[in-house]
Amino acid sequence: MRQYIEVSFLLVGGKDVMKLERLLSIIILLLNRRMMQAKELAERFEVSVRTIYRDIDAINAAGIPIVTFQGMNGGIGLAEGYRLDRNIMTNDELAAIVTALRSISTSYGNEQHQQLMEKLNSIVPPAYSEEFRQMTSRVLVDLSPWEGNERLQPKLQLLKDAVDRCMVVAFTYSNARGEVSHRWAEPHTLILKGRQWYVQAYCLEKEQFRLFKLKRMKELEMAEGKTFERREMPAQEPAMNNSRYEPSGMTEFVLRFRADSRYLAEECFGVEELQPCDDGSWRVRKAYPEDEWLYSYILGLGHHAEVLEPPHLREIIAQRAEQIVKLYRSDQAT
């Protein structure tokens, strides 16, 4: 009995969505050809041979058996008896893939994504095309910031190339405390979290993996001629690492919102978090890491919210508010 391959894993099972089109293309090529050389695949997709072998491992891990044939006429090919049956991917599954690609492209768009969407749309039967178009237009997860990310795109492209080619990058970095340093790093993974782009890289100065925020990177460039061997990644994925929000590093605080500022409290914290007070105001009790971000966030609420506790946080916000007042007093203007 002939066995079949299901390709929908590429969307839901692959950890790196940016290589989705390459994995799918490799499978299609191997379906149409008996065998291909790793070098040929590497040249075709403009990546290293090492990257191709990692892709092959990922495809194998998804349950699609790829065999390596040794010898002069050897290469890489699918195990005998396996082929792709388009009918195994339902219209709903196909629509889910196209919808996800459109969403990804709002923050990380390139020509390959567009080509892949066109390929997937091309296998939709003509009689179903209008219904399919409607299905793929029902949901769009827009991951782009309101101000756009035109300035970020060159950094993303450079880092993607560096990851694919295993090239060391150099850049100037400003951390959350405003400390500026020059770094050399080996980029391994691009990460989108909370509408912000990060790169997980091995810092050659600190000799450990670090997470760098792209917005804080300046003078970014590839160090031509400086390549690296990919290292074993940390056991815990940085995108899922919420150690910053562990109870030991949190400060619990209470905010009181004015009665006419309920809309703002709901938008910031959600309807369920609001507690009504007898005077018509609203209280919110939360716990966040106490740092510059928290101080700026509370100050950004302006006159709509007041810190009730803890006392030390109330004092810090009061002091900073006084500094702002001094900054804007007319008698201080120059």
UniProtKB/TrEMBL annotation:
Keywords: Transcription, Transcription regulation
Alphabetized PROSITE patterns for the sequence: HTH_DEOR_2 (PS51000), WYL (PS52050)
InterPro entries in the record: CBASS_pafABC_assoc_protein, DeoR_HTH, HTH_11, PafC-like, WCX_dom, WH-like_DNA-bd_sf, WH_DNA-bd_sf, WYL_dom
Domain HTH deoR-type residue range list: 19-74
Signal peptide interval: none
UniProt cross-references to Pfam families, sorted A to Z: HTH_11 (PF08279), WCX (PF25583), WYL (PF13280)
PANTHER family found in the cross-reference section: PTHR34580, WYL DOMAIN-CONTAINING PROTEIN
Name the record gives this protein: Helix-turn-helix transcriptional regulator
